[in-house]
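WP5 quarterly update. Target: DUF983 domain-containing protein. Source organism: Pedobacter agri. Length: 132 aa.
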Amino acid sequence: MTELSKFQAFIQCKCPRCRQGDIFAGSAYSFRLQKTNIYCPVCNLKFEREPGFFYVAMFVSYAMNVAEIITIGVASYVLGLDLIYENLWYYVGFILFGVFLCSPINYRYSRVILLHYLTPGLHYVPGSGEKR
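Structure tokens (predicted):
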């Protein structure tokens, strides 16, 4: 199996240690609830490093939401929606719709960012996903 780069493993939501196992069971946009695997199915890494570990992902998700809100607001203005009081509810509607559409991605990637980039001591170990 070919080795994934750190960025490829990040985009595909793979384990930060072996870069082969999936962090999540199922897809982002499915009718089932999103579920984070407890252990990596390949290298047996426990994803929740300590009790309440993923609470920090809420702060990452908040930052992602703020960036999306600003982007949607500016894009609405650039695409021709005048910045006047009568258009306030259009802005609110566009922003809420965009945040609603991006919430599964925010949930997923806030946890992946936390695991890949914000967890000290969790690094790629070549060969950790190979069968012994």
